[in-house]
Design goal:
This protein is mainly α and 92 residues long. 47% of the residues lie in helices and 7% in strands. It has 2 domains: 45 residues, no CATH class; 47 residues, no CATH class. It is built from 4 helices and 2 strands. The chain is globular.
Length: 92
Amino acid sequence: ALPVYTAAAPGPARTPAQLRTVAAAHLAEPLAFHRTLRALRLAGFTTYLDSGPRALLSTLARAGLPGCTTAAPSRTPAGLERIRLRLTAALR
């Protein structure tokens, strides 16, 4: 199973029940983006794909994690090919 990191929990969600809990928390609780980014960095991640409309994760990652790579393909009108190209470039 693929762990899902979320700003609503201190660690990754690994089960369907945990995913349901954090999905509900996203609607009702404050989100801890910085804590989540630090957890991702400690887990070895250096590239961040932002799917939000305002690229908040990308902005926070660039500000707080020197040397990271970010991509926010949904900020601009993009077809699947453009998203693929951006992901490929970000993962190099």
